[in-house]
UniProtKB/TrEMBL annotation:
Designated name of the protein: Amidase domain-containing protein
Annotated source species: Gossypium raimondii (Peruvian cotton)
Record-annotated Amidase domain positions: 44-145
Keywords (A to Z) from UniProt: Membrane, Transmembrane, Transmembrane helix
Gene Ontology molecular functions: N-(long-chain-acyl)ethanolamine deacylase activity
Length: 223
């Protein structure tokens, strides 16, 4: 499954990025990104087809699981946040061992396109945050959002706000009053504000889905 995920995502990403790195523009990318893209270019059409065959098989097994359960629950990552070496800020970082730990529980849902979300539930001995991932059936976003909200409320007392914290959603909501429509009309009614709030909500949920896509149960991933 790891190889199927790498081939699928890598092939699709290189296809979308190719127009942006033509005529020597690729040298502007970090070394770790360029290394990954060089690997992605080695994948053949046969590799991609084989990955999609495996993807269909994995989807079948997950659909069988969802006949018995409503939600699959896993850790968000296989480890808490690792230290970032100073060199990574300038040159990027390519640590396959660490990447493997971090991505262990995100592969399947990302490969299969299943809805998933992560919720902070506590901290490890070093005070680093721990997340819990919820994976739902296809088109089951409403279910995991409701469950995530309940878990978040339950664990609210144990959460600690980091020393450096930026509430992006709050900032965006506060800026709605100054937004203009088509560059001309100020927001002047509750319906306008509601419309832009809805747009912001859907954008936020989309980011959550893309960023926090999870994986299926641990034993299956280990195999």
């Amino acid at each position: 499954m790891r190889i199927a995920h790498l081939v699928s995502i890598g092939s699709e990403s290189i296809r979308s990025l190719n127009p942006d790195i033509e005529d020597g523009k690729g040298v502007k990318l970090n070394y770790d990104t360029r290394t990954c893209m060089a690997l992605f270019r080695t994948f053949t059409a046969s590799d991609y087809v084989a990955a999609q065959c495996l993807r269909r098989r994995i989807m079948h097994h997950h659909l069988e699981i969802f006949k018995k359960v409503d939600v699959i629950v896993t850790p968000t990552t296989g480890m808490t946040a690792p230290k970032i070496p100073p060199s990574a800020l300038e040159n990027g970082e390519s640590n396959m061992q660490v990447s493997g730990y971090l991505m262990r529980f995100i592969l399947a849902a990302n490969l299969l396109g299943l809805p998933a979300i992560t919720v902070p539930v506590g901290h490890d001995k070093q005070g680093l945050p721990i997340g819990l991932q919820l994976i739902g059936r296809p088109w089951g976003e409403a279910t995991i959002l409701r469950l995530a909200s309940a878990i978040e409320e339950l664990c609210a007392e144990s959460r600690r706000k980091p020393a450096s914290f930026h509430d992006i959603l709050k900032t965006k909501l506060e800026s709605i009053d100054s937004l203009t429509v088509s560059g001309n009309r100020e927001l002047s009614s509750d319906s306008d504000a509601g419309f832009f709030s809805a747009m912001l909500l859907f954008t936020t949920l989309d980011i959550l889905e893309l960023t926090f896509i999870a994986i299926a149960y641990c034993n299956y991933v280990s195999n």
